[in-house]
């Protein structure tokens, strides 16, 4: 990837350096990276590597087999200056996604992030805080280990995620240890 590939045309009306979700959505789409917004700051996020993408798809099939509405890499708008693209989004029972590019956190029951070496602090701390502040009932992190992946399951209690389970991904996919 060259430096030119990373250049982003900044909207003219965002000269104060604080961007809105609307500013972000006006930028051209690309398959080279994703754009998220954290407190008005644009974050360039590389697309998932094939192994992480496999985990996303495995979890999507897991939830769909249980009758849940689930999406990979669906945009969620938390407020005018905060927009994330979680790896896996499971909707609340009875809710459906709109045809819009961004969804409300009100329809979300569970968000999953597949942790990579470059996203550990972001996934463990920052995203957990954003998701908890929005009232998302469950947040799972899929953490790599030397023997495979472990799913750390958290439930929202008193404004933060409390760990309620940890299960090997292979065990979860085989039908054990799930909350969702």
UniProtKB/TrEMBL annotation:
Domain Putative restriction endonuclease: residue ranges: 22-167
Alphabetical keyword list: Endonuclease, Hydrolase, Nuclease
Record-linked InterPro entries: Nuclease_put_TT1808 (IPR012296), Restrct_endonuc-II-like (IPR011335), Uma2 (IPR008538)
GO MF: endonuclease activity
Name listed for the protein in its UniProt record: Uma2 family endonuclease
Native source organism of the sequence: Dactylosporangium aurantiacum
Organism ancestry: Bacteria, Bacillati, Actinomycetota, Actinomycetes, Micromonosporales
């Amino acid at each position: 990837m060259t430096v030119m590939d990373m250049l982003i045309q900044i909207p003219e009306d965002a000269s104060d350096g604080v961007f809105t979700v609307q500013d972000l959505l006006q930028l051209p789409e690309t398959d080279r990276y994703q754009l998220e917004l954290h407190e008005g700051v644009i974050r360039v996020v590389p697309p998932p590597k094939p192994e992480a993408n496999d985990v996303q798809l495995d979890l999507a099939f897991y939830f769909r087999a249980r009758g849940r509405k689930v999406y990979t890499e669906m945009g969620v708008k938390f407020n005018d200056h905060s927009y994330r693209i979680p790896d896996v989004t499971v909707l609340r029972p009875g809710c459906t996604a709109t045809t819009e590019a961004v969804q409300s956190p009100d329809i979300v029951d569970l968000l999953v992030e597949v942790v990579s070496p470059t996203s550990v602090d972001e996934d463990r701390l920052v995203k957990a805080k954003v998701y908890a502040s929005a009232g998302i009932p469950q947040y799972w992190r899929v953490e790599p280990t030397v023997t495979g992946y472990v799913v750390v399951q958290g439930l929202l209690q008193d404004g933060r995620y409390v760990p309620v389970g940890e299960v090997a991904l292979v065990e979860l996919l085989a039908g054990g240890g799930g909350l969702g």
